[in-house]
Structures are given as C-alpha cells and as structure tokens.
Amino acid sequence: MALKICDHCSRAYLDGGEEEKTPLCPDCAEYLEALYRQAWTWLRDHSSADGRLRRVTSARLAEELGVDVKSIEVLVKMDRIQTSASSSQKVPGKDLETLKALRRGLPGGGRERRGRR
C-alpha cells in the first residue's frame, strides 16, 4: 500500500498497490466515471445534432455539463475523452506532413496506376 495524492481533489489516500496513470481516490474515481458517462452522452448527442461537433474545448464541455473544468481535464489526462486542446497535440508519426513525406518517398510519388502500362 502506498500513500498517493488524488489528481482531482488533491487529497491523500491509500492505494491498493495497482499502478495507475492518473492516481484517483475512490470517491473521485466513482464521480469521474459518472461524469464520463454524462460527457460521452452529451458528445454523442451533439455530434449527430450539430453535424459532428468535432472541436469542443474542456471549458465548453464543462459549461454544458455544469461541472468544473478540472474534472474534464482529468478525464482528458486519463485518455477517457478528447477535447480540441488534446486533439490538437501532435502525435508522432501521424501528422499530415509526415504522411506527405512518406507519400513522396514512394515510387512514382504514390500515384502509380496498377494494371496500366
């Protein structure tokens, strides 16, 4: 058992020994699980209603759900949801420039036609 500090409420709690990416006390873990379901439902409903609302910020989602922004940011840190701020972070090897460079490196620039000679 280890003494850890909760990322959400900053209270100390005794951990059961499992390794966690984001340390949460049992009360906050339960609260954030319920909040995740609520956020997921809101995002699902508004993505179809607003024509795929792709760029929602933590602040807007928190305002819509009536919660503190810190709660949404902890969900983002846990990789449970993505907001526009988290989706704009560069993922190595997956940005457009890397894909263009890979395409240029292909024989014929990636524009060869198969079957025609």
Tell me about this structure:
The chain is mostly helical and 117 residues long. It has a domain of 65 residues. Helix content is 47%, strand content 7%. The chain contains five helices and two strands; from the N terminus they run E-E-H-H-H-H-H. It has a two-stranded antiparallel ribbon with strand order 1-2. Strand 1 and strand 2 form a beta hairpin. Helix 2 crosses helix 3. The longest helix has 24 residues. It is flat. The mean pLDDT is 78.
Task: Give the key terms.
7% strand, 2 strands, mainly alpha
Helix proportion range: 40-55%
Largest sheet: 2 strands, antiparallel
Shape: flat
Uncertain stretches of 5 or more adjacent residues: none
Q: What average pLDDT do the residues reach? A: 78
Order of helices and strands: EEHHHHH
Count of individual helical segments: 5
Give the CA-CA distance, first to last residue.
69 Å
Q: How many beta strands in the DSSP annotation?
A: 2
- The strands making up the biggest β-sheet line up spatially as 1-2
* Strand-pairing-aware structural class: mainly alpha
Question: Using only CA atoms, what is the Rg?
Answer: 21 Å
Q: What is this structure's SSE topology?
A:
Elements (H helix, E strand, L loop, with lengths): L1 E4 L6 E4 L10 H24 L8 H8 L3 H9 L6 H4 L8 H10 L12
Antiparallel strand pairs: 1-2
Summarize the structure.
Helix content is 47%, strand content 7%.
